[in-house]
């Protein structure tokens, strides 16, 4: 167990454990008394929190949805900022970013199930690739306003981020970006199936 004394390993574990905290599930249970895993899409993310809580309390739904979005983003951001303050390498920072997303999508607290990873992915990318993430957020905002389908807007924004990273930073190693993109895409496969069937719900 000597490897646990390694600072990089400690941060990798911290990133995974912090990323796995199911804020949406906890907030919905504590403040609305509902289990988002048993309702709506079954996701623990902000969109499903908003959709499920909205059925009984529209005002509270907006607050809990916003809080879930912020906390899911921050759990990756905070670990990265601490790692930066410690002076860890860029390669280690990217490892932390990937593991935070993996933690959210495959949470150790939920039998390795979890959310879609969009908010956590957005958070870590904002730290690692701020300009590219801003471009993606603009694309997401336009998509959310026009098509009002969360999954489609998120995946369009993800594609924009990946393309922007290759255009603006062609010299960087893109493997971590592609790994995060693949995880998010994989977690959205059920959404794509519902979309093709015309069953994917709009966010109103």
From TrEMBL:
One of its GO terms (biological process) is phospholipid biosynthetic process. Pathway: Lipid metabolism; phospholipid metabolism. It comes from the Bacteria. It is a multi-pass membrane protein. One of its GO terms (cellular component) is plasma membrane. Keywords: Acyltransferase, Cell membrane, Lipid biosynthesis, Lipid metabolism, Membrane, Phospholipid biosynthesis, Phospholipid metabolism, Transferase, Transmembrane, Transmembrane helix. It catalyses: an acyl phosphate + sn-glycerol 3-phosphate = a 1-acyl-sn-glycero-3-phosphate + phosphate. Its EC number is 2.3.1.275. It is an enzyme of class 2 (transferase). InterPro entries: G3P_acylTferase_PlsY (IPR003811). The keyword Cell membrane applies. The chain crosses the membrane at residues 12-32, 64-86, 93-112, 118-142, 149-168, 174-193. One of its GO terms (molecular function) is acyl-phosphate glycerol-3-phosphate acyltransferase activity. Signal peptide: none annotated. It is found in: Cell membrane. Probably interacts with PlsX. Belongs to the PlsY family. Catalyzes the transfer of an acyl group from acyl-phosphate (acyl-PO(4)) to glycerol-3-phosphate (G3P) to form lysophosphatidic acid (LPA). This enzyme utilizes acyl-phosphate as fatty acyl donor, but not acyl-CoA or acyl-ACP. This is Glycerol-3-phosphate acyltransferase. It comes from Sulfurimonas lithotrophica. The gene is plsY.
């Amino acid at each position: 167990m000597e490897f646990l004394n390694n600072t990089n390993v400690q941060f990798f574990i911290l990133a995974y454990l912090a990323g796995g905290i199911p804020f949406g599930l906890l907030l919905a249970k504590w403040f609305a008394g509902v289990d988002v895993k048993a309702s709506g899409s079954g996701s623990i993310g902000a969109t499903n929190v908003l959709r499920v809580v909205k059925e009984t309390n529209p005002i509270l739904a907006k607050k809990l949805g916003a809080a879930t979005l912020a906390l899911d983003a921050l759990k990756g951001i905070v670990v990265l900022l601490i790692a930066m303050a410690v002076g860890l390498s860029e390669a280690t920072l990217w490892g932390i970013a990937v593991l935070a997303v993996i933690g959210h999508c495959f949470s150790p607290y939920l039998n390795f199930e979890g959310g879609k990873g969009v908010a956590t992915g957005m958070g870590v990318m904002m730290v690692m690739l701020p300009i590219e993430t801003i471009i993606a957020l603009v694309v997401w905002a336009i998509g959310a306003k026009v098509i009002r389908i969360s999954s489609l807007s998120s995946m369009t924004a993800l594609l924009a981020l990946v393309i922007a990273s290759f255009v603006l930073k062609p010299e960087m190693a893109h493997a971590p970006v592609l790994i995060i993109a693949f995880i998010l895409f994989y977690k959205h496969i059920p959404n794509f199936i519902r979309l093709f069937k015309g069953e994917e719900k709009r966010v109103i």
